[in-house]
Design goal:
The protein contains one helix and five strands. It has one helix at 37-50; strands at 3-9, 16-19, 25-28, 58-61, 67-71. The longest helix has 14 residues, at 37-50. It is globular, with a radius of gyration of 11 Å. The termini are close together.
Length: 73
Protein backbone atom coordinates (compact mmCIF):
# COMPACT_ATOMS: atom_id res chain seq x y z
CA UNK A 1 0.00 0.00 0.00
CA UNK A 2 1.27 3.51 -0.76
CA UNK A 3 2.26 5.85 2.05
CA UNK A 4 1.75 9.60 2.12
CA UNK A 5 3.03 12.21 4.53
CA UNK A 6 0.38 14.57 5.86
CA UNK A 7 0.61 17.74 7.91
CA UNK A 8 -2.61 18.31 9.85
CA UNK A 9 -4.11 21.37 11.48
CA UNK A 10 -6.76 20.54 14.08
CA UNK A 11 -9.63 22.78 15.24
CA UNK A 12 -10.13 24.28 11.77
CA UNK A 13 -13.49 25.75 10.79
CA UNK A 14 -14.07 22.85 8.38
CA UNK A 15 -12.27 19.69 7.32
CA UNK A 16 -10.61 19.22 3.97
CA UNK A 17 -7.43 18.81 1.97
CA UNK A 18 -5.69 22.14 1.44
CA UNK A 19 -2.86 21.02 -0.84
CA UNK A 20 -1.30 17.92 -2.34
CA UNK A 21 2.23 18.87 -3.11
CA UNK A 22 5.58 17.24 -3.57
CA UNK A 23 5.97 17.67 0.19
CA UNK A 24 3.45 16.65 2.83
CA UNK A 25 -0.24 16.97 2.05
CA UNK A 26 -1.75 19.79 4.10
CA UNK A 27 -5.06 18.82 5.70
CA UNK A 28 -7.35 20.84 7.96
CA UNK A 29 -9.48 19.00 10.48
CA UNK A 30 -12.55 20.38 12.26
CA UNK A 31 -12.02 18.00 15.20
CA UNK A 32 -9.96 18.81 18.30
CA UNK A 33 -6.67 16.96 18.87
CA UNK A 34 -7.92 15.07 21.92
CA UNK A 35 -8.84 11.43 22.49
CA UNK A 36 -8.10 10.52 18.87
CA UNK A 37 -10.89 12.70 17.45
CA UNK A 38 -8.57 14.47 14.99
CA UNK A 39 -7.17 11.15 13.77
CA UNK A 40 -10.71 9.81 13.22
CA UNK A 41 -11.54 12.94 11.23
CA UNK A 42 -8.33 12.45 9.22
CA UNK A 43 -9.44 8.91 8.38
CA UNK A 44 -12.82 10.26 7.22
CA UNK A 45 -11.25 12.92 4.99
CA UNK A 46 -8.80 10.46 3.42
CA UNK A 47 -11.47 7.78 2.98
CA UNK A 48 -13.57 10.31 1.04
CA UNK A 49 -10.56 11.31 -1.06
CA UNK A 50 -9.52 7.74 -1.93
CA UNK A 51 -13.07 6.35 -2.03
CA UNK A 52 -12.34 3.56 0.41
CA UNK A 53 -13.38 2.37 3.86
CA UNK A 54 -11.93 4.19 6.87
CA UNK A 55 -10.72 0.85 8.20
CA UNK A 56 -8.36 0.54 5.19
CA UNK A 57 -6.37 3.60 6.28
CA UNK A 58 -3.82 3.46 9.05
CA UNK A 59 -1.26 5.76 10.62
CA UNK A 60 2.22 4.28 10.24
CA UNK A 61 3.96 6.90 12.37
CA UNK A 62 3.21 10.19 14.09
CA UNK A 63 -0.16 9.32 15.64
CA UNK A 64 0.19 12.11 18.20
CA UNK A 65 2.08 14.67 16.09
CA UNK A 66 1.02 17.17 13.43
CA UNK A 67 3.06 15.40 10.76
CA UNK A 68 2.02 11.81 10.13
CA UNK A 69 2.82 9.05 7.67
CA UNK A 70 -0.40 7.39 6.56
CA UNK A 71 -0.87 4.18 4.60
CA UNK A 72 -3.72 4.33 2.10
CA UNK A 73 -5.09 1.76 -0.37
Amino acid sequence: MPKITVSVTANASKSGIVSRGPGPWKIRLAAPPVEGKANEELFRVLADEFDCARSNIRIVSGATSKTKIVEVP
